[in-house]
Batch of 3 targets.
Target 1
Amino acid sequence: MPVATEKQIIEVEEAAYHVWHNYYKDIFSDEQIEYMLEKYQSKAALKKQMSEGYIYYMLLADQQLAGYMCVLLQSDYLYLSRLYIKAEYRRQGLAKKTLAHVEAIFQNPELGFSHIQKICLRVERNNSFAINVYEHLGFHKVRSEDTDIGGGFVCKEYIMERMIPKNDMV
């Protein structure tokens, strides 16, 4: 479900707080988590990103917010900026279903996205769980980058990508 309303933006902000504090506590310091939440996942940050073309989606399971995803369409690829799933919904195939749904959109020739060949993402190099999930879903590491995100913090990430399978149906 696309995020469009103020209420939905607040729900994603709250989900981010829940997911990041639960998941990243062993990867980042509390200070870095708070810094990144404010910079990238606060209500103001979400609104700014959405005004720049980022599209947020709420991931639902049994009519409950199970996580969220954010994408940005580039000239020849789709940038998967965020894919976060709450702890209680992990290991249930939600990431796989989400990616299958996204790829179905780009495989439909009637929608005009045939020029999009791949999905790219960034993942923290210390995030072995996410790296394993992405590799299981067909992504591979392309390169590593260290990015100064301000506040004295650096993200050490892998850039990963996955080709979008072409649908032979015309």
Target 2
Amino acid sequence: MNRLLTSIIMYFAVMTAMAQTADIEVSYRYSHPVQTMRSAEPDVTNQYILLTDGSRSKFYSPKTEYIDSIESTPEGFEKFNTFKRICYEKKQSDQIPRVDGSFYVTKSKSNYRMLTYDIASATKFRWEEQLPNIKWNVTDSTMNLLGYECFMATADYHGRKWTAWFAPEIPVSDGPWKLCGLPGIILQAECDGGQYRFVADGIQQVRNPEYKIYGNENWDPIKREEFWRLRRECLDNPSRNRGTGGNTIVYKGINYTKYLPKNIVDYIETDY
């Protein structure tokens, strides 16, 4: 525990100077069940990036952002569709860039707000929340990640219990997805049961970072709870989510139709 207290004191001593002078980029592997809830295991992995300077941040998929940047103007949208059509005609569909994850999260300490952008029922939505004040329980358990000594902390957030590992040597109070509020960058986080997990696999300083969301005016406003209810309702309505119709899933010897129930697997936020 003495090492932890020393690290936290050092964190507060240098946090302001570093946060104002450096932008850092942390890459994460985000593992989770398929979004149509056909699996109870984290069988999908996306590559995400946290871009942060300590006072603002953006968590995003670089592959998805690349496509969104192209489609953010009418001209780009038309050119991309033309490119895809040509690829299909030439039987070269593997040349078409693919999205890798659906959501963005931006945080701002200047106004204590957090914005989430995500897709449900083939529609782009965005919603705003207050920057979370997560009640972390910090322990003296340690683990080495990317060469940094990390301490363990646990907390309940949006219906799940999370275990996070943060590095006080990197004095930025931020982390993947919506997780933040620890005296150091969060390099790994996992919910109880392991269905959702973020693991950092690289970190570097960056110059001229881009924090904007391309085409953010094209995302429809919605309330957080309404978004997750809509996404879950899509599983009940094959006309909204055609891929769920007519499938039987066997889980621990029991047959389920179309998707697994909420008590077996649910979305990353369960308090909706």
Target 3
Amino acid sequence: MDISFNKKMESLEYDVYLKSVDLEDNNDDFKFEIDDFQSVQELIAIAPDCVRCNLCVDVCPVNAIDEANIFKIAKIRQDECVKCEICVQTCPISCIAIIENTAEFNAEENDDMKYFLTERKTPHRIIRMNDIAIDYNNFNIEGDVPKFCPTGAYTLEFKEYFEDYNIEVDIPLEEDTLYPVIDKKLCVGCGACVITSIGDFITLDRYVGPVIFVKNLEINQDICVNCYLCEENCPTEAIKLEDGEVVLDDDKCIRCIECTSRCPVGALMLVNEEEDE
């Protein structure tokens, strides 16, 4: 997804003027000039096709995602998100994306303010269904389970379907009654059926592979001022200051922006692996 649009400078000037009314020295002659400008911010967003599996909620290391249910999709609380990208890599249907929001202005050309929204590609960790089973003694077909299954593996079928495909269950099947069926060849182990079903009649055994880190945290010990902001704000306690040096536990580090965004001297920097080579 790539989107770009312009904002007329006249409109931007008016917005700034409206903000200026809060200034103590405000007067009618207030003017401003914008120099060359570029700002890049990242936003992690969940698309409307969320299947409500809540796997993103389970893996978020800072609990910044509100759970989904049959009525609403999961929601990222942007003010608490640390941009570690783990949820993006984990979503089984890739409906969570990193959007780079770029704003730039060329003063020499005196052009409009330009905005660009670009989806940044990320690797995806392995999500695999090992086994899934239905307890037909306790099943409940109420809810929107088939609606949220992304592959169509979960369906509701009549007795004839079970007979045609020789599917054996441990209860007698009645006529004109729908029963849940899961096609294991189609199931990807997302867990949407487990979360959205009413009752506890689906058992899922799945494998979730390791997070694929594409960035490394570089530490410049020479310019570090030992302010302890990195240690105090690290959500996984991966950074410690010991004997005047920053010590990183690489196994705990989730490559978020909490330390890099707070370091007052730029001693910490996330670098892409290809740039680091």
